[in-house]
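Request: When convenient, would you put together a sequence paired with its structure tokens?
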Amino acid sequence: MTSCPSTYGSVPLCLLLCLLVALGAVASHPGNNVCSSPMITSCTECLRRGPQCSWCFKEDFLDGAGSSHRCDLQVNLLRKGCGPEFTEHSKVKVEVNATTSSTQVSPPDISITLTPGSEASFIVAVKQLPRYPVDLYYLVDVSASMQENLDHLKTVGVALSLRMKEHSSDLWLGFGSFVDKPVSPYINVHPTKINNPCSDYEIRCRPAHGFHHVLSMTGNMSEFTRVIKRQRISGNMDTPEGGLDAMLQAAECQKAVGWRPEAKRLLLLMTDQPSHLALDSRLAGIVVPHDGLCHLENNIYTGSTRMDHPSLGQLSDKLLENHIHSIFAVEKQQYQWYEELVRLLPASYLGKIGFFQSPNLIDLVVDAYKNLLAEVALSVSVDDKAFSRYWTSVVPICPNGSTATNQSCSGVQPNQTVYFNVTIGLFSCPDHDADEEIKVMVRPVGYNESTTVRVRSKCHCSCGSTGRCHDSDQSPCTGATDGAGLEQRPHQGLVMNESKWDCRADGSNVDCSGRGVCECGRCVCEQSRLGTVYGKYCQMDDFSCPYNGGLLCGGKGVCVSGECVCEGGWTGDSCGCAVSTATCQSPDGLLCSGRGKCVCGQCVCDGQGYSGDVCERCPACQSSCQSNWKCVDCHVSCGLKENEAGHCNRTCESEVIYISAMLSAGGKWLHCMYISGDNCRYWFQTSSESGLEQLHISTRAECASRGRVVGTFLSVCALTVLCGLVVVAVSRLLLQKRGWSPEGATKDGDYLCTSKELSYIPTSNEKTVTYRRDRPHDHSVEMTVHVKMPLGDPWQ
């Protein structure tokens, strides 16, 4: 055995080839084919094996084999004789609805059809617009430790409005406060402490509350300042506050808060302590999970003592659903705790400040706004009931100057567009084994526009080409009809009866013109090596009709059932004839002078000797005149008297009419002339249309005397004889003499004639020449040649 000198890296090349062949053999082995299994007995089960599997519904496919052999890879089914028109396979469709428009997110609506194991991808574009209207809602912790910070907030409204004019054309502000759940052990429930938690400090405080909505969104900065100045602090027992519980109410109670649909929504949480999380309420005996709904009555949160704190997942969904960016303004002692929290909330920004002074707070809000707009992130949410059956993937395509991180782009500038490649896949069908449609919301975080994706799962097969059910290896399915030609079949829904399918053209008794198969009421045309078969009923093709100028049907029609169907203005077998007859009109306005038909813009004359562009000539028409001479001679002999010409009717094939003046020529009449025995000329007319119908004989004649005619005839004969004698005499002289010179000496080949004599000289002459040749040792040879040559050339 020889060694393998060539290598691929450190692996011998022949060894690598052997490995590839082995892997191919393993992959092609039936045991490794995911579509091949004896447990598969239906088309639905086959398609559930994966998107690569196909089911053959051809009735005579592998006669005698089990139904499991109908499920295989597409390439294997083709190899076994099941054409693509007889296979059912996974069909993934993506349809984009572009009828509605949006300014920030496109497209607004997408429809997808998926089968188990398949996936579909689409692009969502997000455009960052400059100078949004901004809604900023202050949600402030009013526990006792926030007294100094609340005083600083009273001067923020007007200054922040002036500062935000650089970034927004319209700023509105709102305000709400929170402390904690007003139950033990979060507050002191002693009767003296419930109404005034600060009684130990001889300060009048307001009672503790979960959330109090104070001021709805307004562009009146003076009103905002007036409301802030009226706020008082409260108190509680433990360190954490109920900030997250209050955030969900501020986000969900849109009508009460007054969030504007066209504005960027910012929710600013101000606190100096951490917040309670879900399950913390169990310390107070509250075990009911939060329902994620708004529970405001008279602007007071009424569900605080009945439901637990929301989970971070709930809060995240509500912020996304209501397009809200969250800003956390916390003191530096709590910065690390909120840093971990912000990572779990979308479109959130964390600011650390030493004191809640006005300049610091304004800088925090402005910086947060710019950073939130510069980051564009995409969120994909699937219905909870179908979440386990689907998977999603998002890949950002960031513009120049920005950075891609996970599912977002950072550093995006106004008027730049970010693209996201979104993929949605289907793991499995629902347990009830029926098609379903769900909504998947694709929304940029913090934007008030989104893309709605309607995903339809196709979990069972459609009908086959003959209306037969192939979910088993039996014959056609049996089932009760619904009375309208529809048959209910297991796992297939209503399938149209074969006789109702629209696969036959009017008047045809075969499906798809015999050149295709009927797929659920639709013709799937066959693939021909000669060309393409197409059309609703496979009635058209591009190869079976005559060509004209190298084009099928002359490029002026389509081929239907082997015949050209021409466009308007064209006719003929290959659509090469113009319908217009303008070129066939004769000067008298008739079509082809009334003697033919206009075909392809040219006159085809009747077969009676007519010719010409418009059938205006008739060289053979004299024979029609001669055929009537016998009839005319009879009538002339009778003196053109109707009462004496009755016996002439036997010699006439048509009706004879005597006329004094001839009708105008043209049209159907032909002028003829007859010369009688007494040298008289008679004019008559015959019908030139099909068959001789009438014969018009003129009663006027042109006659000459017989003596004058005889004399003229004899004179002509004498002159002819005399000319003939002169020609013969001159010819004989030319044959006897070879010529003469001016000096009187004759030369061979030269004969000069006068101009008068030349007119009688023939143009050629004949001569017989005998050649003799003597050879020393043989007899002499004679050869006679008969020569005919022009007279002007000398004999050689």
Observations:
- Confidence is low (pLDDT under 50) at residues 1-31, 464-500, 740-753, 755-760.
- Residues 211 and 301 are 5 Å apart (CA to CA).
- The chain has 16 helices and 44 strands.
